[in-house]
Input
Amino acid sequence: MSFLLPKPKIEAVANINIRLNGEVRDIDMGLDLVRLLEHFSLPSQRIAVELNGTVVRRSDWHATQVNEGDRIEVVHFVGGG
Output
């Protein structure tokens, strides 16, 4: 008598390419802007995020999905005088 064992579940994580501050980066699909900043250990304070030429309000970062081919610029403001 032979038994068929269930096949293990393989969870594939799809990756996408984006351009972050001018450099092509390979990231997991499904990240929003907040998780993208965390992924690259970028500070979330005193920065502005531009997505495909449009500044994204901080209140919209959680709802803004990062997609294949997106161009993202993260600018850190520095005070002083």
